[in-house]
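Q: What structure does this chain adopt?
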Amino acid sequence: MASILTKKPKNTKLKELKTLGQQLLSSRAHINNLPILLTFISPSSPPPHVLESLLSLQSFFTTVLPNLPPSSSSIKRQRVDVSAKEDSEFIYRTWLRSKFDEFITLLIEVLVSPDTEEALREIVLDSYMDFVKLGNGGRFYSAVYHKLLRSIVHSPTPVEFLSELLASKYFKYIDVRYFTFISMEKLAKTLDARDIPDDKAVGGDDDSGSQSRESMELSIHNIHYIISHIPPLEGIDGKFEYEMWSGSGISSKEEHDKKELSKLKKEEDKELKAEKRNNDVLSRATIAKKMKLKFTKAWISFLRLPIPIDVYKEVLATLHQEVIPHLSNPIILCDFLTRSYDIGGVVSVMALSSLFILMTQHGLEYPNFYEKLYALLAPSIFMAKHRAKFFQLLDSCLKSPLLPAYLAAAFAKKLSRLALSVPPSGALVIIALIHNVLRRHPSINCLVHQEDGDETPKDNSKAEHIVNKADDSGSGTDISHKRRGIDHFNNEESNPIKSNAMSKYLSQYVSFASN
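A:
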């Protein structure tokens, strides 16, 4: 044994390493083998050596962990009896606790290292999650799990490989999802607290400030990857089951015993089954409510971060389908979505879907919605990646029978002007949109069927009143006195109220589109 201990770890053979593990498991007299085995839990060690040390250490700590005191970070906050401190057994267990904490840290280093082989990483992750499952007296060891997530989020190098492995193997368990949401909320708030507002706040070292911003952006990427890969809690039905990583899930042994005892009498059987069904519904409803609350808190904390533009677009692209339906109160996204909608360009287009859902399904009032939507109508929108979804939402937004005539006319004329400068495929879309607007809003059919001689003050009294009211400077134009044959629609006006959309007919543009 002395010959093994005197060798350097890198020169230790696999057979000798196995002997060290067997001795550690056989007797406390070989406890000094523990630090030696820990030195092999490293990304630089050969994978067989890491695996052999891992198996021995996992077997050892699994048996002693329930009897160990709290970790060194939490023991300071607890009062320990003086006699206990002097007890040799207590000192021994405290030392073992420190070694276990070191073991956990080393496992994380192996997991986040890009040099670790995929097969070894999967084995190490399984061993780590076993400690999460069993290391807290059979309950979920949230502190150990949080360390793993914190290391993933704050890793200086991309760790999608580890996040993907964690998501594919363990996010199907309801308790793993629950504590993942809790950790993501905490980590997002920590990042938000140390946000770098600008270059001046960083100081004179531009390189340091750039590294800090890059580090934060990478952390935000990691949070988004994790939180977006957690499957949502689906609706509760008769076959719905909550699979737990730690514990036995919702169904308990007591309920099984009740079921066995209920065979004695038929009436008792029915009563117990009904009671069991009610208890299951209550338990599932409680879990679903808690999950939705943690889901909401995690996402709201994440959306408050200074999200990079590429992540920002990814979030907006999926927010209406993967986030809003599962929030406890979707209306709390109104500030984030209105800010996104006010940015303009492609970001506004991508925010439109979620904002439209909040307005139509959750009662959000946004007075400037149509004005912002009108401003998005530009030739560049026909080149946008999400143009098909935008035109679908535009058509839905113009469906309402309560839409004022001047707004419907403004959108129809704005679209008709766009037909002059967009590709032929875009012109076909415009024709369909204008047709739907005219069909749904008969009050603006005069734009198509009106003749020059039919344009009277009576026909345009409503539009004239709106335009004069909107023009506070008093320069509003009396439509009835405008020269016939000239369309006074202002295509450059961003406010549809002031665009004079009701001033002249639409037939020339419809004829152009038809040709």
